[in-house]
Amino acid sequence: MVLAYDRASGAEVWRSTVTEQVPHEAGHNTNTFASASPVSDGERLYVSFGSRGVYCLDLNGKTLWSRDLGKMQTRAQFGEGSSPAVSGDTLVVPFDHEGESFIVALDAKSGEERWRQTRDEQTTWSTPLITEFNGRTQVVTNGSNRVRSYDLATGELIWECGGQAGNPIPSPVRFEDNVIVMTGFRGYAIYSIPLSSKGDITDSETITWIEEDAAPYVPSPLLYQGQLYFVKANNGVLVSRDVKTGELRIDQTRLPDISTVYASPVAANGYVYLTGRDGTTVVLKHGNSFEVVAKNKLDEEIDASAAIVGDEIFFRGKQHLYCVAKE
User: Fold this and answer.
1) Among 116, 197, 240, 301, which one has the highest count of C-beta atoms within 10 angstroms of its own C-beta?
2) Three-state helix/strand/coil letters over the chain
3) Which InterPro entries match (predicted)?
4) pLDDT tens digits, residue range 234-257?
5) Are residues 55 and 66 in contact, defined by beta-carbon separation less than 8 angstroms?
6) Does 301 reside within a domain?
């Protein structure tokens, strides 16, 4: 089911049931059957339910097209979670699992397949980054075996790099002409890779910088004003690095009253917001020192990343949607 709410009042605007199916896997107790984030190009809304299909809706909730990409067999039946990405008239859907993994590009208007590339990967929960460099648009995907970049127009493999730890979930981020990828499950890896790379650059001097002392497992990093903010594994331990050089800005520091984190950090107006799974949000002042300026708690579990729009911040809890606004 897909739902839309009025930003100002929270009133439900519409809801659409796109499919009803019996799950073929149990899933992890912290996952749901709708973990992937919807994405919009301003004209249409795209939602991936993984094994239950990819759907395109208009902004009034009417289904325009759907595609069935098959059934995922996720590792240890942990469930599905990778989100699609859209750029121009192309929708990219990752499909890494314990079966035959692939990445596919669909026509955003019709749902017709444009290209498909097989992937030597196990279950991955990362969302692709689509970014333009020197007139060519790249689709950068993280993976247990390789980080790979594909040409958005053709699916051609542009470059690849090994070295990530297992089960990568954090989404890649871009700074200037580099893309930063990371993972923090049973090992830590942060790689800054030039978008000008070609071919297999594993263990080459092409890589801008590498750090292996701490990286996130589930949350994606925050790139804000030249700094990377992230937690160590899923723990309430903050680290910050200079995005250009990898230099440490804030060493591993415990976040007050936060033990476990799934939600990615967000930032606005010089402040960084980090939300723990118990609903506690710690607000830090952006900079090279660890300075807490506020701490608030919602009485609900929160695993989804907060969204900031203007003076409002939205939290999706286990049972409720919250809007916190400036008075």
Assistant:
1) 240
2) CEEEECCCCCCEEEEECCCCCCCCCCCCCCCCCCCCCCEECCCEEEEECHHHCEEEEECCCCEEEEECCCCCCCHHHCCCCCCCEEECCEEEEEECCCCCEEEEEEECCCCCEEEEEEECCCCCCCCCEEEEECCEEEEEECCCCCEEEEECCCCCEEEEECCCCECCCCCCEEECCEEEEEECECCCEEEEEECCCCEECCCCCCCCEEECCCCECCCCCEEECCEEEEECECECEEEEEECCCCCEEEEEEECCCCCECCCCCEEECCEEEEECCCCEEEEEECCCCCCEEEEEECCCCCCCCCEEECCEEEEECCCCEEEEECC
3) PQQ_b-propeller_rpt, PQQ_rpt_dom, Quinoprotein_ADH-like_sf, WD40/YVTN_repeat-like_dom_sf
4) 999 999 999 999 999 999 999 999
5) yes
6) yes
Pairing of strands 157-161, 199-200: parallel
- Token pair 């160590």: residue: 232
Q: What distance in Å separates the CA atoms of residue 82 and residue 169, rounded to the nearest whole number?
A: 8
Domain limits for position 312: 247-327
In this prediction the pTM is 0.94
Residue 24 confidence class, pLDDT cut points 50, 70, 90: low
Start-to-end CA span in the chain (Å): 33
